[in-house]
Amino acid sequence: MSSLIGVFRDTSVDSELRINAYLAVVRCPSPDALSQIRQVLETETVNQVCIAQ
Questions:
Q1: 37 lies in which domain range?
Q2: What Gene3D superfamilies does the record point to (predicted)?
């Protein structure tokens, strides 16, 4: 699971791979994974990955 979070957090990775890593993690997330995802999404600059505000 931590390797998927690592892919999701790595902004140098293709956005489609990052999105797929995100989807894999949220299928059965741990509290720590959700915390890390939230941290990333709060500062995300790639429009394909960030949440709409």
A1: 2-43
A2: Vitellinogen, superhelical (1.25.10.20)
